[in-house]
Automatic annotation (TrEMBL):
Listed name of the protein: ROK family protein
Origin species: Candidatus Liptonbacteria bacterium RIFCSPLOWO2_01_FULL_56_20
InterPro entries: ATPase_NBD, ROK
Family: Belongs to the ROK (NagC/XylR) family.
Segments passing through the bilayer: none
Pfam family, one: ROK
């Protein structure tokens, strides 16, 4: 990847919005603000976040958000119900802006720089309030439109914890992964904060016959924002 100078990457979440200043190889600064309760507040927070990153000359902004996207328009947002066909170019009329689904941003960051680096064929999975899915091969993340929508079993997933959740996922994930046959499965998200959860899930998937590598995500809470900045990579 060529270093094209500094880029701002933004992760729009249901409870917080995180931003990073990315120089092509590392994060220079980060900031985070609470997600507001209405559209005008969201526009104001995005502008304030960029200002707090102290990057007035940065003219490129990448944004990742859960939900369906088209161009710079966030058509719907899984975690922010009031968002409907919101053009995120609005607060940044003079900037080059690129928008993508947050799971694809997570996958892009982990595929190119994190736990999936140098693997050809990576399925990225985030386990949080919802389930984010993305697949990448040949140095790019593929756009699978159905992954912008929830799985049919996601509501059941949200009601489970601990051993019951491990058992549930070990039954559901092999079928989800089968069409892609990745070399590496990268798993991240807040659910992994529970001690031993990743190890238990990996062992359960092994018992179900999953033989490819299963790795914990490396880039932590900056992953989506970094992946959004990487929308400008060459």
């Amino acid at each position: 990847m060529k270093n094209l100078g500094q880029v701002i990457g933004i992760d729009i979440g249901g409870s917080k919005i995180r931003g990073v200043l990315w120089n092509g190889t590392r994060v220079l600064r980060t900031t985070e603000l609470p997600t507001p309760g209405n559209t005008e507040g969201l526009i104001a927070v995005l502008a304030a976040l960029v200002s707090r990153l102290h990057a007035p000359r940065v003219s490129r902004i990448g944004i990742g958000a859960a939900g369906t996207v088209k161009g710079t328009v966030l058509r719907s947002c899984t975690n922010i119900r009031y968002v409907k066909n919101l053009d995120l170019k609005r607060p940044f009329p003079r900037a080059a802006l690129r928008l993508d689904n947050d799971a694809r941003c997570f996958g892009r960051a982990e595929f190119l720089l994190g736990a999936g680096r140098r693997a050809n064929g990576v399925f990225a999975l985030t386990l949080g309030t919802g389930i984010g899915r993305a697949y990448g091969a040949h140095a790019r993340i593929r756009k699978a439109g159905r992954f912008e929508y929830a799985e049919s079993w996601e509501k059941a997933y949200q009601k489970l914890h601990g051993e019951k959740l491990v058992a549930f996922l070990s039954n559901k994930l092999p079928k989800l992964l089968q069409p892609f046959n990745p070399k590496v499965l990268v798993i991240g998200g807040g659910v992994l904060a529970h001690k031993g959860f990743f190890e238990k899930l990996r062992a359960a998937l092994r018992k179900k016959g999953v033989r490819f590598a299963i790795r914990r995500a490396k880039l932590g809470r900056n992953a989506v924002a970094i992946g959004a900045a990487l929308l400008f990579r060459r």
